[in-house]
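LAB NOTEBOOK - FOLDING QUEUE
OPERATOR: T.R.
BATCH SIZE: 2
PURPOSE: Compare the predicted structure-token outputs for two unrelated chains run back to back under identical settings.
PRIORITY: normal
REVIEWER: second-year student, initials M.K.

ITEM 1
FIELD SEQUENCE / FIELD STRUCTURE:
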Amino acid sequence: MDRSARAQAIERTLSEKLEAQHVEVLDQSALHEDHLGAQGGGHFHVVVVSERFCGLSRVAAQRAVYEALSDLMEHEIHAISMRTLTPDEWPG
């Protein structure tokens, strides 16, 4: 899967599995091209806004993102950082 397809798959998966109102995916793979471990997958930063995060701790919300992306984590994602927000926390 190429980089843009990976980013689209991440966005689609988070939108569907977490019923996210907003998802941003930033592909940071180019910054890590020389990193040997990154050969099999990309580096991404995501912002996810979802009602599902209401009442969850930050760690629990991040676990929900990892769970939603579990299939992609096997081969398509080498590393991911994230910001998880509820709709009330989202300024956009």
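ITEM 2
FIELD SEQUENCE / FIELD STRUCTURE:
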Amino acid sequence: MTYAVLRSSGMRPVGALVLSGVFPAFGVLLGVARDRRVDVFGVLVLVGIAVGTVLDLASGNARLALLEGSVPTAVFGAVCIGSLWTAGR
């Protein structure tokens, strides 16, 4: 939603993607401070946002950053499917 609002206000795609990552990052850090424990999935999302931000800023190509976001999801899905094969052992 943040991305859509920023884009509709005239911001370029790369800047909108970078700024839209601020809210999830803040949420993860707030959760760590409040609960005094690290949410593994939250940290993975935060790392993905950081990598996407670096790619955005380095390349200036918003599509590259969006494509990069699908790679961790695919790897996580493969790990989940792989865990099904080892669950019965």
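REVIEWER COMMENT (ITEM 2): The chain has a mean pLDDT of 81.
FOLLOW-UP: none requested
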